[in-house]
Amino acid sequence: MNNKRRDFIKLTGMTGVGIAGSSMIGGFAATFNNSNQSNILSTVKNKNFSAGNQSIIGQYGEWATGLTGHKLPSLSFRKKEFTNLEAWRKTAKQRLTERLAIPDIGGLPKVNINKQYSYDGLHIEELSWQLPYGHATEAILLKPVNSKERLPAILAFHDHGGNKYFGKRKITRTSDQQHPLMVEHQNGYYEGLAWANEIAKRGYVVLVADAFPFASRRVMLQDVPEHLRGGLNDEDPENADKIAAYNKWAGEHEHTMAKSLFSAGTTWPGVFYAEDRKALDILCARPDVDANHVGCAGLSGGGMRTVFMGAQDERIQCAVCVGFMTTWKDFVLNKSFTHTWMTYVPLLPNELDFPEILGLRVPLPTLVLNDSDDQLYTLDEMKQADKIISEVYSKAKAADKYKCSYYPGPHKFDRAMQKEAFDWFDRWLKA
Description:
Blueprint: H1 3-11, H2 25-33, H3 37-44, H4 60-69, H5 85-100, E1 111-119, E2 122-129, E3 137-144, E4 151-157, H6 180-189, H7 195-201, E5 205-209, H8 240-263, H9 268-284, E6 289-299, H10 301-312, E7 316-322, H11 328-335, H12 354-359, E8 366-371, H13 379-395, E9 402-407, H14 415-429
Parallel strand pairs: 4-5, 4-6, 6-7, 7-8, 8-9
Antiparallel strand pairs: 1-2, 2-3, 3-5
């Protein structure tokens, strides 16, 4: 990866669902390489486009936000007519399920343990399972060495990062020999830690699976028509230059995948949820897991998956969303261009604002961690999202089960944030 491109990814905070993962990667990268750096960075700063009629869609912004922005969404628990928490949750969750168009991907798959070993005080299992479509899903499971009792568990979600070549390796470490790009990734976004390892050391069984379409689940070049491969191939896959080329191709291919999924009658978040739920099934079925004490967490793209998983599956007793919380208004006016096609659910903004999806967890414990200088959102709308979730939890008389914290700096999940997240899990899953 050339230095300019690496700096561009760092500066724009694309750990989870940044520009580098969008269909616009080619145009933005080309602009950056033409040394028009200041123009690009001015568009990704944590700011509202509020001068006159300015928005990312020009004069259409005010009109577009007005379609939903002047009234509460139809299924918002903040509306006065919703007084029965369980009745509201049932209705709103059903509508969310309908909007996601979650595909049926079969029952519990056979899980293969491909390798077992110990590293840095952890027992590690390299797992795989075959879904009815695509290449086999690969996963890493971590737990303390010599643990005998059933342990609470964490379903850990890796980020997006504009990097579909890697998945589970972004947040795990299984030997002293890491790929140099993963050393760089963890140094840049996790302050040098493999956070899945760190939470496992606290006494958890942690499962990290490759998400669709990352790493083992990525679109292989050999499987698409030759005229769409951009002259690339799957040979010498661990080469850094080949990885950079693949990630550029995969970013540009993302709009094709999204349109194909819509045409197939599903959504990208719906596919995420279907596959993440299968990983949760596998985790909860293990004899070493206390299935009544399970949580999930992730940064950015992993934070988005936390929102949808935490909203819909009550086996997730505790959820920590990191670096992915704002409002639909923020996407409309300011920030949809910094996010991938993986984020959006057609029609849902009419019924639930984005933070209200996570609010469907109420009264289950929920923590949101934001970076105050996060380039992927505006601070005003991060604060508005916090206010919305707070109102939902307060109305449900569960204010003590929700917390939102802000940390200085850009898009990241650093050591201080990890400590708060891990302490939150300990409080609610080890009581």
